[in-house]
Amino acid sequence: xxxxxGPQLSARGLTRRYGPFLAVHDVDxxxxxxxxxxxxxxxxxxxxxxxxxxxxxxxxxxxxxVLAGRDITRTRPARRARLGIARxxxxxxxxxxxxxxxNLVVAAWRHTGTRTGWxxxxxRELAARGLHRLDEFGLADHAHTKAxxxxxxxxxxxxxxxxxxxxxxxxxxxxxxxxxxxxxLTLLLxxxxxxxxxxxxxxxxxxxxxxxxxxDTVTVLHHGRVLATGTPHAIHTHPAVAEVYLGxxxxxx
Length: 253
Ligand code: ADP
Ligand code: MG
Fold this sequence. Notes:
Blueprint: E1 9-18, E2 21-31, E3 36-40, H1 47-55, E4 62-67, E5 70-71, H2 77-83, E6 85-88, H3 100-112, H4 120-136, H5 152-164, E7 170-174, H6 182-193, E8 200-204, H7 208-214, E9 217-222, E10 225-230, H8 232-236, H9 239-247
Helix pairs in contact: 3-4, 3-5
The protein binds adenosine-5'-diphosphate and magnesium ion.
């Protein structure tokens, strides 16, 4: 994909310390509209921390985060969400006691602002949109199933569907394919491929097939630093990357 404007989301010198420990260390990263960028690295490399720094759920010790030219380093996560950054967590953050559809209704209601109140007409409108989204995700038959009764894979899909209710320009996914059975994995890949073309996606993912089939660019984190960035092929054959993984064979997810 060609890019006519600057990056959608950028990190510059992004750093997060925990005491003397550098969980994320001087990371530069650019995500342009339409990019599919995978973030890989051994356990503890700092991948989730980096996602949290971009989403705003933790504050950096140093460095900057810029969204469409605007410095959002000090911007709270809810505001970042309204500015276009959506994210999912390693563990799906669905509301277990609500139905799949109500999860999407609540997500949309939160996003559009609770000031509009909870009028029946508003609820019907959000429910119609939610049903459409569930259909896209192969979940239409489960619209009225409680989230707690869905499979792990279905909950993950629901979590991603909820993240998309905000029509984000940037989507941050933490291990979307983790623990998915083949059928759910196929559904996930099909669904992600149909995201709006200009959505910039950064995903933490260990599944090599997922990375190869979706990502244009792969960044390898190691001890909080960027070890390498390149095409999936270049990264796959990168000697230093092989060394990192061979050095920690049991930590590769
Ligand atoms: P990854 O997602 O790549 O497996 P994380 O970003 O979760 O790694 O963690 C990176 C490192 O930072 C790990 O060594 C982890 O123990 C440490 N870390 C993460 N959060 C905290 C915290 N709140 N306090 C102290 N150390 C943390
Ligand atoms: Mg993680």
